[in-house]
Amino acid sequence: MMLHLLNRSPRSTATYQDLSEAFGADDHLLLIEDACYAAQPSAGAALEPFGGRVSVLQEDLVARGLAERVDPSVEIVDMNGFLALTETHERCVSWF
Amino acid sequence: MLNYALLLHAAPYSHQAALSALRFADTVVANGHRMKTVFFYHDGVHNASALMAPPQDEVHLADGWKRLHREHGTELLVCVAAGLRRGLLDVGEASRHGAMSHSLEAPFELTGVGQLVDAMLTSDRMITFAP
């Protein structure tokens, strides 16, 4: 059970591809920084491989004007929620 | 309570990563965990510059790291090999290399990557922030 931390916009297709291949059945993905753009409904299939186990960081959404444009399948968490994800997942890997 | 270590690869102000890491560190201590070590690697060593002078109405990243050390005892470890390449020298290294001045001071410490491995082994969580 691993937490994956992603900070690249969905235009970085190779990073998303590599991550999807490494993503385990019990893993969770947190979108931060420019990865917030992947949480929009218009981002299409970028998050499809992650089976709804995806969260996005609220502060980074707000900074990009995306707070009202999040796909309902993506959970919004604040910094405390980010920390809570690192508490419940023993290992955390960053993709960049 | 968990022991956290952060690995920061990103230069200050060039990318969001350094600010993300500082915000995360503040959240760690606000929630009762221990922010044990921050390791500055690659361009992340620039966060340790003693000469950093951002405009007063902007976040002062180096002061943020120093505040963590002062208030929570966080170790601020800077990779010596990455630092020397980029002009981050403490008094001793500046003297050894004949540099006209130094640019790194306590509480930042120049260390080797062995200290990074030690931080990985002795912390409960290691979180990487990169550009």
Automatic annotation (TrEMBL), chain B:
UniProt-listed InterPro entries: DsrEFH-like, Sulphur_relay_DsrE/F-like, Sulphur_relay_TusD/DsrE
Subcellular location: Cytoplasm
Record key words, sorted: Cytoplasm, Transferase
Gene Ontology molecular function: transferase activity
Catalytic activity, EC: 2.8.1.-
Matches recorded under Gene3D superfamilies: DsrEFH-like (3.40.1260.10)
Keyword Iron: no
PANTHER family: PROTEIN YCHN, SULFURTRANSFERASE TUSD
Stated family: Belongs to the DsrE/TusD family.
Protein name: Sulfurtransferase complex subunit TusD
Organism: Salinicola lusitanus
Gene designation: tusD
